[in-house]
Amino acid sequence: MKSSVLALAAMATALAAPAFADKLDDIIASGTLRCAVVLDFPPMGARDANNNPVGFDVDYCNDLATALGVTAEIVETPFPERIPALMSGRVDVGVASTSDTLERAKTVGMSVPYFAFEMAVTSNDKSGIKSFDDMKGKTVGATAGTFEAIALEKQVKEWGSGEFRPYQTQADVFLALSQGQIDATVSTSTVAQANVKTGNFPGISVVGKAPFDTDYVALFTNREEYGLINYLNLFVNQQVRTGRYAELYEKWVGGDLPDLTVPNVYR
């Protein structure tokens, strides 16, 4: 009798508890997926001649929305505002070339890597910088809060000479570089080549690789949304399996397709 009473009490408690919908359900019910995307980071995100968002991350958000059966809404989000935009509820998911650092994982939930960047050095032609080591003692800069900015600032401190300057956007960095306000920057190789090719920043050249780790980037959402995070992981997997990842890479970047797995960690 006592066991039956306890069981009934537990059942009543469970029925009385409010049911919370997963964020995945909320997105599907709303009919819209709001993606944080950086639009001054070609070829990952930019605006075309008609001011429409374009780029690898834009297409990736559109693909995710299609898989969910909803409409994509691209929310332009500068690098420093990516996580604040999520925390304030302005976006549902970040498709914003966001490095999967342990520090960020304390705040947001991150998927498996969906893209991987190598780092390149771009210099002002008048600076005389022809390699990464030539930056020692020079004035350098990068976009605040990015993987490369953190690594470059640390390197300047280790060198014990020179100056590091943080900037709000990639466009600000390359404008400062072109105008001679800084001598060099480290950015992803994709961004470096794209900015040089535009011709919008005269007098700069990509001069070599930076000896920083490969920058693996992830989709992100609220940390507690396990259902959505699981869906994002499977979506990345499907993008690779179906060949869509390779298709988008060829469309926006070209060249050898980066491996999204870390050797001896996961395959």
TrEMBL record:
Q: Which UniProt keywords apply?
A: Signal
Checking SMART domains in the record gives: PBPb
Spell out the SUPFAM superfamilies in the cross-references. Answer: Periplasmic binding protein-like II (SSF53850)
Q: What are the boundaries of the signal sequence? A: 1-21
| Residue ranges occupied by any Solute-binding protein family 3/N-terminal domain in the UniProt entry | 32-256
Q: What InterPro entries would the database entry show?
A: Solute-binding_3/MltF_N
The answer to keyword Cytoplasm applying to this record is no
What name does this protein carry? Transporter substrate-binding domain-containing protein
Organism field: Paracoccus broussonetiae
Taxonomic placement: Bacteria, Pseudomonadati, Pseudomonadota, Alphaproteobacteria, Rhodobacterales
